[in-house]
Design a protein that fits this description.
alpha+beta; Calcium-transporting ATPase, cytoplasmic transduction domain A; six-stranded antiparallel beta sheet
């Protein structure tokens, strides 16, 4: 197959739906934000590793992220909430500014030399839990002091001191972060709680102030644990071509050299089983090259002098020498990877609905609380202390904990449910967007099919020798060949192997040898024609097989054709069911393949796909995805090879058949099907629909409870106790509702 030397780089690959709501906040909370700054990075030796003891939840993580993303020197951020650590990929010269910026937000930033161990993290979590439990016990003691002698001065002083201890144990970090937010003109959860607790303490409601702070901090701890993220940072794209190539030296010897240093025109050599490190043109040798990962061809291609070879492909048989035609940075594989990087770099971040809502909601509630505290005594003659108390209750109710936790816990549960089913989703945004797909592009080889040639049919011709002997001869010849088609024939025949003498191979035709004193050939359709042994009946039979996309080998002796063997890349057992499920979900399957049209249509007919687009090189698949996208379709793409990578990145969601897929395809894709079961894709879409429904249920639940208590706080008898329990109750309700997704969907 001819492949152009230049692949057009992908432009404007993805048009994210800015109207998406919950997935955005969840995406941010889960460190899978879709933006230029990578959402998470490993704690590499070159990164600044910080411990931030006050970083308790996704809201504070988001606050730090937004601040650091404004630094041009910051290349990536890696948050670990359970360990309360942050890895910052930035030049060492910028570390001081990064630490100072974090401290300005009210957080302590301690530099670490290595990530804390799991034991250290667990120990720190136990220590904090014990401190919060102690604060809760001390807050209960403050309540007891108030109940024993509420009017006795000594008991009041004692109770206030005990309450202050409870607040100090549980709330110092809240106050520090709240004050930092106020200094920056922000009203976040910590600022609201700080004002509410201080206000309650000052108007004599110190028992409630202590209990509210203890319960609030304990609720944050529980929420943070419920959103421990399922993530494995996605590293940069990995090149398939080896880093070194065997190059001929001026003295005629061969030596390994760095591929990036090999000049155009150099002579390289690749042995059987090795990958090509560079693009080139064969000058000596012959063999079969598996280039399915680049071109999509299901059957390895015979190579001889004058044929092109490509970096990343595998030489399956025969040593090949080739002249390097492209430098390492300009190979076909390199251009494909550049196209993937370009596609990923142009993804726009989704608008974060929850953040936008909180930016308006929290100040609005604060203004409402001020209006109640000041306006009602002046306009409605309410007692000042009663009005102030109601305003403080409003502030406690206003804390958007349940709203903030509703999306991350739902997304995490959906991701966990998918992982249990062998579906690895790289970010919460993708599990939400999968429900929108209307068209799904499917690669053929390795996706719909197994990607391995197998013997699927055999037929002996009339007048031939005994069947047992014919099968023995065929297997004996096929077993001596290292061509993939011959290997498939040998593997598919259950017959003994006889000694072969005078064995030889004819390039592009087949093999021959002498068995039992007779000369036999095992070759392709063309060789049978050249030998003049292709009768009209045999010709019709061969065309019938070829129309089904099969590759044929014919066994013949000097008297004529003896038997025909058909080899094909068979469909996966699950492909037909998966296509039917996709159609039932309203998703139109389209086959996009680099294979020939005859084979593609035959395979498509077997699984129920009507729209077939064959003979596509990598940029052709990319163009097909772009055309569907420009027509208004929400396009997904499924593939497993390097040739699929640009189209995987250009699609709204890219699915890679992970177990068999190449590293480049895995990195370009957003969702990996680890067990190669195509039915997991419609299952992902169903899970996406359910996840989206639960997201909105949680948002409605969180806001509904807030609305009810707003009314009760102003016109009823709601207390701060009730308010904090309502906030905790709403948080637990949305957590439990989100955890329902762990059961998965059918």
């Amino acid at each position: 197959m001819s492949i152009p030397n230049v692949i057009q780089l992908a432009r404007d690959k993805r048009k994210e739906d800015s109207g998406d709501c919950c997935g955005s906040a969840a995406c941010e909370a889960l460190q899978f934000a879709d933006k230029a700054v990578p959402a998470s990075i490993p704690a590499t030796p070159g990164a600044l590793l910080l411990r931030i003891p006050q970083m308790d939840c996704a809201v504070e993580e988001g606050q730090i992220r937004r601040t650091l993303e404004s630094f041009k020197q910051v290349r990536g951020l890696g948050f670990d909430l359970p360990a309360r650590t942050l890895a910052v990929d930035a030049p060492e010269a910028a570390w001081g500014s990064v630490i100072a910026a974090i401290r300005k937000l009210g957080f302590t930033a301690e530099k670490l030399t290595a990530p804390p161990s799991a034991a250290d993290t667990a120990s720190a979590q136990r220590g904090r839990l014990l401190r919060l439990v102690a604060a809760l016990i001390v807050a209960l003691l403050a309540e007891l002091c108030h109940l024993v002698e509420p009017d006795a001065y000594a008991w009041q002083i004692t109770g206030m001191m005990v309450a202050a201890v409870a607040i100090a144990l549980s709330g110092l970090d809240v106050f520090k972060k709240g004050l930092a937010a106020l200094r920056h003109g922000q009203l976040n959860i910590n600022a609201l709680m700080g004002v509410a607790v201080i206000g309650a303490f000052l108007i004599g409601q110190w028992p409630e102030a202590a209990m509210v702070m203890a319960l609030f901090s304990l609720a944050e701890f529980i929420e943070a644990r419920s959103v421990e993220r399922a993530r494995n940072a996605v590293a940069g794209l990995l090149a398939l071509s080896p880093p070194e190539a065997e190059i001929r030296q001026p003295d005629g010897t061969w030596a390994l050299a760095d591929a990036k240093d090999v000049p155009v025109g150099a002579l390289a050599r690749v042995k059987p089983g090795e990958r090509f490190a560079l693009d080139g043109r064969v000058t000596a040798g012959q063999g079969a090259v598996d280039q399915s990962s680049v071109t999509g061809e299901s059957i390895p291609v015979d190579k001889a002098p004058g044929d092109d070879v490509f970096a990343g492909t595998i030489n399956q048989s025969g040593a090949l020498e080739f002249e390097v035609t492209k430098p390492a940075g300009d190979t076909l594989l390199a251009r494909i990877i550049h196209a993937v990087e370009d596609a990923q770099g142009q993804r726009a971040p989704t608008q974060r609905f929850v953040d936008r809502f909180a930016a308006v909601y929290t100040p609005a509630v604060f203004v409402l609380a001020l209006a109640v505290a000041i306006g009602f005594p002046l306009l409605a003659s309410w007692p000042w202390l009663e009005a102030i108390y109601k305003a403080l209750v409003l502030l406690v109710i206003a804390c958007p904990c349940a709203l903030v936790i509703s999306t991350p816990v739902t997304i995490v549960s959906g991701l966990a449910a998918a992982t249990r089913r062998g579906i690895l989703i790289k970010g919460g945004i993708y599990i939400e967007q999968a429900r929108k797909l209307t068209v799904l592009g499917l690669d053929k080889t390795g996706t719909i099919t197994e990607g391995k040639p197998r013997l699927v049919a055999r037929q002996l011709f009339e007048g031939a020798q005994p069947e047992a002997w014919i099968l023995t001869v065929a297997r004996s010849l096929a077993d001596r060949s290292d061509h993939p088609v011959s290997k498939a024939v040998a593997a598919g025949l259950d017959a003994p192997i006889e000694e072969v003498t005078d064995f030889g191979a004819e390039l592009g035709k087949g093999v021959h040898g002498t068995i039992g004193g007779h000369r036999y050939v095992l070759g392709n359709h063309r060789w049978l024609h050249d030998r003049g042994q292709c009768s009209p009946q045999i010709e019709a039979l061969m065309r019938e097989h070829e129309a089904q996309g099969r590759t044929l080998s014919v066994l013949a002796d000097d008297s004529g054709a003896l038997a025909l063997f058909a080899v094909a890349d068979t469909t996966r057992e699950t492909s037909k069911q998966a296509v039917a499920e996709l159609k039932a979900l309203g998703v139109r399957p389209v086959m996009l393949t680099g294979d020939n049209a005859t084979t593609a249509r035959a395979i498509a007919a077997l699984v129920g796909i009507e729209d077939v687009r064959a003979g596509l090189l990598p940029h052709g698949k990319l163009k097909a995805v772009e055309a569907l996208r420009d027509a208004g379709e929400q396009v997904g793409m499924v593939g497993d090879g390097v040739n699929d990578s640009p189209s995987l990145a250009a699609a709204k969601i890219g699915f890679s058949m992970g177990a068999a897929g190449t590293d480049a395809a895995k990195e370009a894709a957003d969702i990996l099907v680890m067990n190669d079961d195509l039915r997991r894709i419609p299952e992902t879409i169903r899970l996406s629909k359910k996840t989206y429904a639960v997201l909105w249920q949680n948002i409605a639940l969180a806001l509904g409870i807030k609305l009810v208590f707003f009314v009760l706080a102003i016109f009823g008898g709601a207390t701060m106790w009730m308010a904090v329990f309502a906030d905790m109750g709403a948080s637990l309700l949305v957590v439990f509702n989100g955890l329902r997704l762990l059961r998965g969907v059918r």
